[in-house]
């Protein structure tokens, strides 16, 4: 008897016997639901036998038989009603547990988030892809899917999605493309560090989504609920279905603010801020520009995160502002990093350490923020040093810049497209899905071992577009991605350490050392970040102009 827990109230299992009742009682169960019709198997006990044994142990027992592969809406409704009425915890069973898990999934439609339902059943070993449309449709069998179909569907209208659409249109102007994204506003997120440093205004980093969708590309303003790659279908919230010949997946990351206890309640007040949100980056500068003394904590969660240098960029620009105002000596800067190194590519660390010392910042490695008490201005960290028991430490603060934990979006994590860690599973060179050859992915959501930065997406979009067009023409992949990523580390106002690297930490500088030596702070790199990169983004990358981003031929070797 293999019991799989779905929730605190419900577990499911394969067929049980009357002899199992004593053990089930010992494990705390109080009710049984039988979802297997009598007579389905020759060695199967009848429900009457199970019910008699259950009552002897003080259980309630309910019979909701379901024919294999034929779960109907009324049965799901009956299951939900039974769950509401029965004392918990409940064990539901059938031949394998699948019907019971399916009934529970359908009974939760409209009550729980689809991704949460799929996550719980997937964790228990049950695949609900066959009923995902019904779950999305609120536990009712769709009678009209209203399918629309496009040659290319792109999920996500961020940097990667719009750039890929534009690059595809540049290669095949008549290609029918749809982009799915519910957002009204598109953000230039690399600019938020500069907003938090008092360099940019927040308004410089935002444009309406409609103004950026490439001409001739359909914009489906909706959220994705699930994928059906076997049917070449994307399921939208509300159970609308969009079908495709080829799919590009690039919805970005989920910022999991709620994973830190008390953080949501205090963001934007009590000195707690983050450059990872458009509305909070101006508050960062407000705090920095008015602070004259006290403790400032800058946090970095476990990897992966987008723009891994962003948490320390905030620290450097803040330290520089305090230095220029002559108050740095009265400010205690603490950089609390859940990881064990300042920056993952060692070539850039010496230059960064000079600024750590200049701002007299204390580096606290293996410190992961787990809770915040905003009104009391206290932060709690779990310290997980190697070969040392985990301990909790509490720190007072006057200002705290938080980088939130990050993960793949829920609808990606529970989908058939994801690897075991929840990321879209692609070939790291061609960016084509490993299991579905008409699907590609780019940006922060895929599992290639590169830095998650806008600069990476700038290089990836032409690779995806080139390889998709080759596939349309009946050819093999023609282009490869070398893992390029860039992190312009704003070490002071007017100077940047321009980190550029690829797979394996190999340095991939875009300019000769005589122009920009990326391992040293440079005014030229600041000029690039402040003056050139925003127009390159808005007028180049998002328009299909592959400036400094021509795809590399597949013939070259990628380590």
Strand content is: 15-25%
Mean pLDDT: 94
CATH superfamily of the largest domain: FAD/NAD(P)-binding domain
Helix fraction bin: 25-40%
Number of beta-strand segments: 28
Number of helices: 15
User: Could you say which overall geometry the principal axes of the C-alpha atoms support?
Assistant: globular
Question: In total, how many domains does the architecture comprise?
Answer: 3
**Biggest sheet, in brief?**
7 strands, mixed
Q: What CATH architecture label of the largest domain applies?
A: 3-Layer(bba) Sandwich
* Low-confidence sequence ranges: none
* Helical/strand content category: alpha/beta
**What's the CATH topology name of the largest domain?**
FAD/NAD(P)-binding domain
Radius of gyration: 27 Å
* Oligomer category: single chain
> So what's the CATH class of the largest domain?
Alpha Beta
Kindly report how far apart the N and C termini lie. Answer: 47 Å
Can you give a write-up of this model?
- Helix 3 crosses helix 4.
- The longest helix is centred in the last third of the chain and has 19 residues, at 454-472.
- It contains 15 helices and 28 strands.
- The protein has three domains: 4-136, Protein-Tyrosine Phosphatase, Chain A, CATH 3.90.190.10; 149-253 and 408-553, FAD/NAD(P)-binding domain; 257-405, FAD/NAD(P)-binding domain, CATH 3.50.50.60.
- The strands form eight sheets. Strands 6, 7, 10, 11, 12, 13 and 24 form a seven-stranded mixed β-sheet that branches. Strands 1-2-5-3-4 form a five-stranded mixed β-sheet, sandwiched between helices.
- The mean pLDDT is 94.
- By secondary structure, it is α/β, with parallel strands linked by helices.
- Helix content is 28%, strand content 22%.
- The chain is globular and about 85 Å long.
- Its cofactor is FAD.
- This is Sulfide:quinone oxidoreductase.
- Residues 3-110 form the Beta-lactamase hydrolase-like protein phosphatase-like domain.
- Residues 150-270 form the FAD/NAD(P)-binding domain.
């Amino acid at each position: 008897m293999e019991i799989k827990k779905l929730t605190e109230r419900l577990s499911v299992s394969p067929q049980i016997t009357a002899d199992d009742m004593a053990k089930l009682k010992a494990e705390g169960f109080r009710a049984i639901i039988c979802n297997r019709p009598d007579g389905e198997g020759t060695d199967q006990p009848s429900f009457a036998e199970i019910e008699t044994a259950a009552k002897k142990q003080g259980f309630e027992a309910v019979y909701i038989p379901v024919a294999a592969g034929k779960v109907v809406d009324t049965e799901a409704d009956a299951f939900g009603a039974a769950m509401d009425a029965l004392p918990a915890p409940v064990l539901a069973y059938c031949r394998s547990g699948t019907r019971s898990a399916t009934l529970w999934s359908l009974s939760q439609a409209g009550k729980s988030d689809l991704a949460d339902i799929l996550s719980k059943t997937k964790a228990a070993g049950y695949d609900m892809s066959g009923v995902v449309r019904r779950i999305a449709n609120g536990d009712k069998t769709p009678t009209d899917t209203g399918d629309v179909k496009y040659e290319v569907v792109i999920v996500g209208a961020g940097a990667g999605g719009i750039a890929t659409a534009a690059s595809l249109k540049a290669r095949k102007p008549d290609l029918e493309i749809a982009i799915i994204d519910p957002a009204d506003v598109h953000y230039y997120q690399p600019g938020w560090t500069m907003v938090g440093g008092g360099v940019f205004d927040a308004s410089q980093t935002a444009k309406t989504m409609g103004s950026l969708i490439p001409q001739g590309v359909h914009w489906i303003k909706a959220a994705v609920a699930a994928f059906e790659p076997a049917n070449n279908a994307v399921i939208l919230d509300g159970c609308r279905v969009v079908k495709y010949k080829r799919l590009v997946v690039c919805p970005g990351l989920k910022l999991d603010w709620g994973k830190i206890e008390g953080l949501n309640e205090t963001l934007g007040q009590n000195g707690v801020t983050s450059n990872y949100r458009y509305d909070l980056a101006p508050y960062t500068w407000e705090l920095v520009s008015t602070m004259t003394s006290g403790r400032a904590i800058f946090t970095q969660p476990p990897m992966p995160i987008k723009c891994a240098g962003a948490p320390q960029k905030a620290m450097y620009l803040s330290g520089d502002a305090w230095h220029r105002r002559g108050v740095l000596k009265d400010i205690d800067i603490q950089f609390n990093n859940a990881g064990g190194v300042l920056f993952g590519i060692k070539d850039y660390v010496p230059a960064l350490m000079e600024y750590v010392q200049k701002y007299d910042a204390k580096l606290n490695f293996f410190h992961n923020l787990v809770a915040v008490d905003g009104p009391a201005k206290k932060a709690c960290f779990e310290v997980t040093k190697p070969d040392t028991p985990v301990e909790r430490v509490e720190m007072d603060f006057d200002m705290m810049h938080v980088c939130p934990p990050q993960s793949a979006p829920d609808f990606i994590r529970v989908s058939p497209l994801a690897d075991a860690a929840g990321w879209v599973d692609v070939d790291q060179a061609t960016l084509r899905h490993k299991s579905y050859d008409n699907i590609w992915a780019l940006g922060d959501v895929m599992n290639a071992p590169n830095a998650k930065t806008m600069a990476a997406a700038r290089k990836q979009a032409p690779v995806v577009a080139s390889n998709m067009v080759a596939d349309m023409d009946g050819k093999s992949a023609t282009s490869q991605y070398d893992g390029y990523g860039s992190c312009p580390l704003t070490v002071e106002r007017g100077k940047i350490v321009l980190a550029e690297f690829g797979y394996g930490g190999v340095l991939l500088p875009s300019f000769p050392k005589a122009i920009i030596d990326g391992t040293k702070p440079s005014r030229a790199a600041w000029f690039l970040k402040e003056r050139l990169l925003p127009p390159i983004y808005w007028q180049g990358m998002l328009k299909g102009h592959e400036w400094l981003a021509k795809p590399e031929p597949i013939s070259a070797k990628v380590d």
